[in-house]
């Protein structure tokens, strides 16, 4: 099966956009990711999928901690920055939650301790037990078919 065909099919699934952050050797690091999922309510577990060759991969294996920053609809620039799409120097101001660097202005931030790692093809699935949550008002940044999207509310059709 062609890689492009697979990527195109996966792009048909609309996702939210997150930036995974951690602190390594005293410095904050981040990576844009849409491969994020809630796994369990009891215990509270979430999962992020990180490519084996991503810089974040080794950092997560060593720190065993990460934060999931769920981006707001006005944070496309942060998504592009942490995806490596912006080449100019940009200063990012971080807050701290549960001793982890987190982004300002997100609609939700979740901090985790890694409780399991599973190799899956060319990625590792990092399962994290949730330690803190911070919520803010706002709408999510969405991504589908290679483009950022906005959330719209559909009216219910009373005839169905």
TrEMBL record:
It comes from Brevibacillus centrosporus. The keyword Oxidoreductase applies. GO terms for biological process: pyrimidine nucleobase catabolic process. It comes from the Bacteria. SMART domains: Flavin_Reduct. This is NADH-FMN oxidoreductase RutF, flavin reductase (DIM6/NTAB) family. Pfam families: Flavin_Reduct. The keyword Oxidoreductase applies. GO terms for molecular function: FMN binding; riboflavin reductase (NADPH) activity. Residues 10-150 form the Flavin reductase like domain. Keywords: Oxidoreductase.
């Amino acid at each position: 099966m062609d890689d492009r065909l697979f990527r195109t099919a996966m792009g048909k699934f609309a996702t939210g956009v997150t930036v995974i952050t951690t602190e390594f050797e005293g410095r904050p690091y981040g990576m844009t990711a849409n491969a994020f999922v809630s796994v369990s309510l009891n215990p509270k577990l979430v999962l992020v999928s990180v490519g084996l060759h991503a810089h974040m991969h080794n950092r997560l294996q060593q720190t065993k901690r990460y934060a999931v920053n769920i981006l707001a609809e006005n944070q496309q620039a942060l998504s592009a920055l942490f995806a490596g799409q912006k080449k100019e120097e940009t200063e990012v101001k971080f807050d701290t939650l549960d001793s982890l660097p987190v982004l300002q202005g997100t609609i939700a931030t979740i901090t985790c301790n890694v409780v399991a790692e599973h190799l899956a093809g060319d990625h590792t699935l990092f399962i994290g037990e949730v330690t803190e949550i911070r919520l803010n008002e706002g709408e999510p940044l969405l991504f589908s078919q290679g483009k950022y999207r906005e959330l719209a509310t559909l009216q219910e059709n009373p005839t169905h």
